[in-house]
Automatic annotation (TrEMBL):
Organism: Nocardiopsis coralli
Matches recorded under InterPro entries: UCP026631, YdbS-like_PH
Keywords, comma-separated and alphabetical: Membrane, Transmembrane, Transmembrane helix
UniProt keyword Hydrolase, yes or no: no
Domain YdbS-like PH: 66-142, 234-308
Region (Disordered), start-end ranges: 410-438
Protein name: PH domain-containing protein
Superkingdom of source: Bacteria
Transmembrane segments: 12-34, 46-69, 176-198, 204-223
Length: 438
């Protein structure tokens, strides 16, 4: 008989009980590794007695700590209780949700567990991590959290999704290999190994270690992270699934992407592919770097199609760009929806910022550019890979771009068009209507 699923909108939940023995085992191993050699001088009996004491002591703490650490949905708020000695409670309004991820490291996959991460605006301390949940519970909570954030009842069904792009593994493998740093490091590694063997100089092999580590970081890391990458769109925003050893499902709701960067390295241009990165409100610090990539590698046409998907009613390719002139200057332009800049000779970078989400505008002149009459136009956005700045523009062009951004921004901003409760807001126009909304 199938197990009856508890209603996630009303129940009180805890992490899976497996977390208790795991914590006890971890504490015992650390104790044995650090204190074991010292206690061994007093004999095996002392080691055994102290180890048993650590096991029962950690169990006496971890078990009630697990029992008192609860969480649940109360209306459109997520309430989290934690701590045993120092009790703490957090009440998170889901209308301020920025992103929600379901992460499954390899060990959690073995035991059918997952971690739910709820990202909020507010910096490094804003993320809420619900660890060691049953996978089905994490998925149902993700759906309920997104429904509340959209302004719908928590029992609303999950919004349907439409396939957008699946990354072929040969393309990912070839794109990671077809990069200048990887190719140069591989050639240098072969030269060092050849020199060490031919001339019999073992000291050469000392330089092999950093090269191997560099290759692992620039090749093996992205390969395992973005294997089986799949992107889809839905009424709840952009959904990304990827990972070899750590499976992750990332959901970015509508309106949370503040700026986008399309990166086309020199060798990738020969393949006609690009990488898409984004400034996502709510991600900060290391989480910004881990979650900024929307497409690790894709055909250039699909990359700009994704830009148009996250910024509805716009077309980044059609924005007219005026050349800044020179190798180190930007091409920049703006229309009623987007501010677009392009720069880079060897690695071409295109930054796209929606004008209604620009937080501030600036016109900068450096000590050297003052003599050339060149200015920098900057559109401030939340932290992330896209900086929204156009460098080295002729003064008249820079001021015309700034004036256009001011005018377009005034017309584009709508005080009622915030990013909260996107499914019930009539001012947000999208190509697809969320079928869950009333």
């Amino acid at each position: 008989m199938p197990r009856t699923l508890q209603d996630v909108t009303t129940g009180v939940f805890r992490a899976h009980w497996f977390v208790v023995p795991f914590q006890v085992i971890a504490v015992t191993i650390v104790f044995a590794a650090l204190a074991g050699p010292i206690l061994g001088l007093f004999g095996f009996d002392w080691v055994l007695m102290m180890t048993v004491g650590v096991v029962f002591g950690s169990l006496a703490y971890c078990l009630p700590a697990w029992w008192y650490a609860t969480f649940g949905l109360r209306g459109d708020h997520l309430v989290v209780h934690s701590g045993l000695v120092l009790r703490g409670s957090r009440e998170i309004p889901l209308s301020r949700l920025q992103a929600v991820d379901v992460v499954r490291p390899l060990l959690m996959q073995v035991f059918g567990l997952a971690e739910l991460r709820v990202e909020l605006a507010g910096g490094d301390g804003s993320v809420v991590r619900l660890r060691c949940l049953r996978h089905d519970l994490a998925e149902r909570l993700r759906v309920a959290v997104l429904a509340h954030a959209a302004g719908l009842p928590g029992r609303a069904p999950e919004a349907p999704e439409w396939p957008f792009y699946r990354l072929p593994f040969p393309l990912l493998l070839g794109a990671l290999l077809f990069r200048v740093p990887v190719l140069l490091a591989f050639v240098a590694l072969l030269m060092l190994l050849t020199a060490g063997v031919v001339f019999g100089e073992p000291g050469v092999f000392g330089a092999v270690v950093p090269l191997v580590l560099g290759l692992l970081g620039h090749f093996w890391g992205p390969l395992t992270r973005y294997t089986d990458f799949y992107a889809s769109t839905s009424g709840d925003g952009l959904r990304l699934r990827y990972g070899m050893f750590q499976r992750r499902m990332q959901t970015v709701p509508p309106g949370r992407v503040q700026a986008v960067r399309v990166v086309e390295p020199l060798l990738w241009r020969a393949l006609g592919v690009a990488r898409v990165e984004a400034n996502v409100a709510g991600y900060a610090g290391a989480r910004q770097g881990d979650s900024a990539t929307l497409l690790p590698v894709a055909p250039r046409s699909r990359a700009f199609a994704l830009v148009n998907e996250v910024f509805p009613d716009s077309d980044a390719v059609s924005v007219p760009l005026a050349s800044g002139g020179g190798l180190h200057h930007s091409d920049a332009g703006a229309d009623e929806h987007l501010f677009v800049t392009t720069h880079g000779l060897f690695c071409r970078v295109t930054d796209v910022v929606p004008v209604e989400r620009v937080q501030a505008l600036r016109l900068a002149e450096g000590p050297l550019t003052r003599f050339t009459g060149r200015l920098t136009v900057g559109a401030d956005t939340p932290p992330g890979p896209a900086d929204g700045r156009a460098y080295g523009l002729e003064s008249g062009h820079a001021r015309s771009v700034l004036d256009a951004l001011v005018a377009h921004g005034r017309r584009a901003r709508n005080p009622d068009a915030g990013t909260e409760r996107w499914a019930t807001r009539a001012t947000l126009t999208r190509g697809r209507h969320d079928p869950r909304s009333p």
